[in-house]
Amino acid sequence: MSAQDDIELPETLSYHDWAAAVREGQLLGQSCNDCDHVGGVPSGACQECGGRDLTTVELPTTGTVYTETTINVPPEGFQERGYQVVVVDLGDARVMARIVGEHVDIGDDVSLSGFIDTDDDHPAPTFEPDD
Amino acid sequence: MSAQDDIELPETLSYHDWAAAVREGQLLGQSCNDCDHVGGVPSGACQECGGRDLTTVELPTTGTVYTETTINVPPEGFQERGYQVVVVDLGDARVMARIVGEHVDIGDDVSLSGFIDTDDDHPAPTFEPDD
Amino acid sequence: MTRASVVGAGMTKFGVHDTPMQELFGEAAFAAFDDAGVGPDEVEALYFGNAMGGQTENVTHLGPQVATHVGLAGKPVQRYEDACATSANAFKNAVEAVESGRHDVVLAGGVERCTPETGLDTDAMTRIFASASHRQYEQPTGLTFPAVFALLTKRHMHEHGTTEEQLAHVAVKNHGHGSLNPKAHFGKETTVEEALDGPVVADPFRLMDCCPFSDGASAVVVVSDDLADSFDAPVDVTGVGHATDVVPLADKDTPHVTQAARDAATTAYDQAAVTADEVDFAEVHDCFTGAEVLASEALGLVEDGQGGIAAAEGRTRRDGEMPINASGGLKAKGHPIGATGTAQIVELTKQLRGTAGDHQLSGVECGVAHNLGGDAATTVVSVMEGRA
Amino acid sequence: MTRASVVGAGMTKFGVHDTPMQELFGEAAFAAFDDAGVGPDEVEALYFGNAMGGQTENVTHLGPQVATHVGLAGKPVQRYEDACATSANAFKNAVEAVESGRHDVVLAGGVERCTPETGLDTDAMTRIFASASHRQYEQPTGLTFPAVFALLTKRHMHEHGTTEEQLAHVAVKNHGHGSLNPKAHFGKETTVEEALDGPVVADPFRLMDCCPFSDGASAVVVVSDDLADSFDAPVDVTGVGHATDVVPLADKDTPHVTQAARDAATTAYDQAAVTADEVDFAEVHDCFTGAEVLASEALGLVEDGQGGIAAAEGRTRRDGEMPINASGGLKAKGHPIGATGTAQIVELTKQLRGTAGDHQLSGVECGVAHNLGGDAATTVVSVMEGRA
Ligand SMILES: [Zn+2]
Ligand SMILES: [Zn+2]
Question: What are the start and end residues of every segment in region (Disordered) (chains A, B) (predicted)?
Answer without folding.
Answer: 110-131
